[in-house]
Specification:
Oligomer: single chain
Order of helices and strands: HEEHEEHEEHEEEH
Largest sheet: 5 strands, mixed
Shape: globular
Structural class: alpha+beta
Distance between the termini: 59 Å
Length: about 180
């Protein structure tokens, strides 16, 4: 193999095998992708929690059990933007369901030091064990950001490019 073809081979992403039932892939701006299994999360699940929210027709209350999303993400090595004092404030989490529904959260909103939203990867819903976790946001008044059949979490660093010109343009317009 010549050197030009090996350079091209390194640029071509490797194909992922499909997720098994019960698996969730965590990827993005992290040191390495991680697969988590719903059964493993269920074994770590905390005490049951009642969540309530309003639908179009009425108020619902459900009992869920799971692991805090922040706790799971804390086990990874994210790529913070080291140019900024608080680079982790520039990270978003994209939660994707099997059917393509997605929700975006900021990492800061689920961090206990900032927003302290107790986002939960629920493994049990009203006593029923789930095949894949449901992202539950107990503080939300509606369930619109709940992601059922969660299959992927992607961390993305959305820090602005280090462009001194754009900063000076913004500072002159904000006066």
């Amino acid at each position: 193999m010549d050197s030009s073809s090996s350079a091209v081979d390194r640029l071509v992403p490797t194909q992922r095998k499909p997720l098994e039932p019960g698996q969730v892939l965590i990827t993005g701006d992290v040191a390495g992708d991680k697969l988590i299994d719903t059964r493993d999360l269920d074994a770590r699940a905390g005490a049951p929690l009642d969540v309530d929210y309003v639908t179009r027709r009425f108020r619902e209350v459900h009992r869920v059990r799971g692991v805090l999303l922040h706790e799971v993400l804390s086990e990874l090595e994210p790529h913070w933007d080291r140019r900024h004092k608080m680079g982790r404030l520039n990270v978003v989490v994209v939660a994707l369901s099997e059917d393509g529904f997605q929700v975006v959260l900021s990492l800061a909103e689920i961090d206990p030091e900032f927003g302290a939203n107790r986002a939960l990867l629920a493994t049990r819903y009203n006593g029923e064990t789930l095949q894949r976790p449901t992202l539950v946001l107990p503080g939300d008044g509606r369930a619109s950001r709940y992601v059922r059949h969660l299959c992927r979490l992607r961390l993305l660093n959305v820090a602005p490019e280090d462009d001194p010109q754009s900063r000076s343009d913004m500072s002159s317009t904000s006066r």
